[in-house]
Give the backbone structure.
Amino acid sequence: MPDDQRQIVDQLAKRPYAQTMVGHKALVTGASSGLGRASALGMARAGADLVIDYNGSPEAADELAHEIEALGRRAITVQADVSKEEDVEALFAAGVKEYGTLHAVLSNAGIQRDAALLDMTLEQWNAVIGVNLTGQFLTVRAAVREYKRRGPQPEVSAALGKIVCMSSVHQQIPWAGHVNYAASKGGINMMMRSIAQEVAPMRVRVNAVAPGAIRTPINHDAWATQEAYDNLMKLVPYNRIGEPDDISRAVTWLLSDESDYVTGATLFVDGGMTLYPGFAHGG
Ligand code: BGC
């Protein structure tokens, strides 16, 4: 990334977060790295206390908890594999035990197991669908159950509860070599909207954020070398890679009352990747 762009994103990340999540108890799945980590920090900066779910990296989760505590907020870490029903139940039980309830949930945990169709194993297919789609179903169901059990708390939020599902531009853009991943994100789109329709009368809001290419470990190979970065930029009209904080700002907005009339929406945060840049000249 050119130096002038680096300065711009550093400046952007320093902007304060408005105190829009004060009093909120928020849970993030897959929070030990990438977008989950950044969003947990953003919500803490906006005033929330956090439940940090991790699967394989207790040290990274602990480090995040310390960073959140340094911001003056509370944090607990819980190990849970979101593709397992009993793990998700235990995760939510731990959060409710610590804080009494939850008000905002980011269903974020996601993986890639890339392979060409002809080589893709059933294990690779099942692993991605299990975490990315079934895991989000289990997480969202547990969130709605907790909001319903707790009942309204208007001093904290106008909504009974709020949920954001982490989607991807690949809920819309087909992706050769990644059929399991694209199918999981396409599934999240209809899952999120169907659940949003079902629970809106309860005053539960459910939305999605669909990131494009963001600088995280999941797509390291797409930005780590100059050549890879230049190739990636052919797909990004705004001409810079996204930073995890770009996603955190969108997530925090959707999980706060700033967006109280928004439900069933997908917010693309992608520097224009879904604008079909190949058509800028031609067609
Ligand atoms: C994927 C990344 C990819 C990006 C844009 C994301 O959902 O996880 O690996 O770089 O989409 O293609």
Notes: The mean pLDDT is 97. The two ends are 30 Å apart (CA to CA). The chain is about 45% helix and 15% strand. The first helix runs from residue 3 to 14.
